[in-house]
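Support reply, case 0932

Customer input (verbatim):
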Amino acid sequence: MMHSSRSLSAVAPRLLLTPQTSAITRAFSSYMFDGLGGAGGGGNPWQWPVTKSNTILNIVPQGHKYIVERFGKLHSIQDSGLFIAIPYVDTISYVVDIRERAIDIPPQAAITRDNVSVEVSGNLFVRFMDPEKAAYGALNPLYSVSQHAQSTMRSAIGEMELDEILHGRARLNALIKGSLQEASEPWGLEIRRYEITEITPDTQIRIAMDKQAAAERDRREQVLRAEGAKRRAELESEGVKISLTNESEGNLIKVRNEAEAEKTRILLEAEANAQAIRWTSQAQADALKQIAQELLKPGGSEAARLALAREYVDMYGEMGKESNTILFNERPADVTALMTQAMTAMKVVGDVTDKKLTSKILTGEATTGTATGEETEEMQQKKSQ
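Our regenerated output:
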């Protein structure tokens, strides 16, 4: 009898019913609890196991599983919905929340591979996949995985340098997650992901990093200024090059235009001179033809001789104007002799060259007055001989 009393005293806390409410009311009141604590909310997140009173008619909320024991042995795992449990025989030993949850990992002191002291904190996201392993695989699976996450994080940080940790968080998260996944499988947990939330180096290291960052910013500023100056110089030189190219092309076009204009001017002047020569030659030819025709008329030869004698006399007058010394023939003062001599020369010339001169004039090969004068002088010398 005493043994029976002790047994009932041991199981009484688990089978305690609330006398103020009915079984159905208490069954529906099982919705009021937090994810990790007991009923009513505000429970300790590390409390394990999470239990629930047997109300005969029990309701399993969505996202939860109930582990029912019969006489202290696993009897069934109830999914969400309604189920009936026998009072004093069946007990709801574990309430397993299979929803994903986040476990805060407090800052942990660690030393990197390059001997830098840092404090690292993170968040672990887990989910119960096997309620049986969660209930019987560890005394407190959530606490166990949290402690293992802390040691794994310190170990992973020791394998990396500070720069790798600061710039390679994804790699660090993957290392920690891989190590935790293997260790938490016997506890019925699935490691969804691990996120490093904060990395705090030592104070001296932070000061050195701040100086390094300031120096890097100064270096980048100098590089940007140098690149800007270089780009400006390139643009200026490019502008000068384009300006000189345009100027040289303009000068080339100007020279070509001036040369073309000079060429055109010379051609036009040459054509004008040629035309003037042609016109002058034509006028001279016409004049000579007219003279020849006049000479062939009666009295024409005498008129020519008279004109030649007049020019002969005028020549001596012009010579007197230009020089004080004049060479005369043997009778310079005898005008009659001069006229007679001139008329005789003209007569001889007229007799000898009338036909020849006429022929040359008509063919355009007539000589100038100077040549005629030379022939006249030659004829006079022949006559004097």
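We compared this against your earlier run and they match. Two observations from our side: Residues 297-384 form one domain. The first strand starts at residue 57 and ends at 60. Please reopen the case if you see a mismatch on your end.
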